[in-house]
Design a protein that fits this description.
Shape: globular
Number of strands: 0
Order of helices and strands: HHHHHH
Structural class: mainly alpha
Distance between the termini: 45 Å
Strand content: under 5%
Amino acid sequence: DFEVRLPPHLDMPRKINWKAVRKAYDIRPSKYEELVQIEGIGPSTLRALALISTLIYGARIDWKDPIKFTFAHGGKDGVPYPVSRRRMDESIRFLRSMLESASIDREEKLRAFRRLINLERRLYL
């Protein structure tokens, strides 16, 4: 049986389909099509993975098209749902924790932290 033990300071959502996550980990899909065929991997999981990967890998984010980010944390106008500051804070804490424990080059880690700090500043202006 697959059991996940997270540090107590990580406040993860209670409704995570860990079986689907484990299955994706075991299968290690190399294409989008393979990932979406895994039972339990739905639209919200895909959106979250896509958004977080843009932060982790430093991919260029199109700030002119913020609609894609509203699906992770909500929109100011309430579409698709109201902004959840709590959810944004949880995401930032999670990303910070992941960066702290990441086994990557020191310079790359510093660049990633700077990107995360800049994103956080933009969110709370």
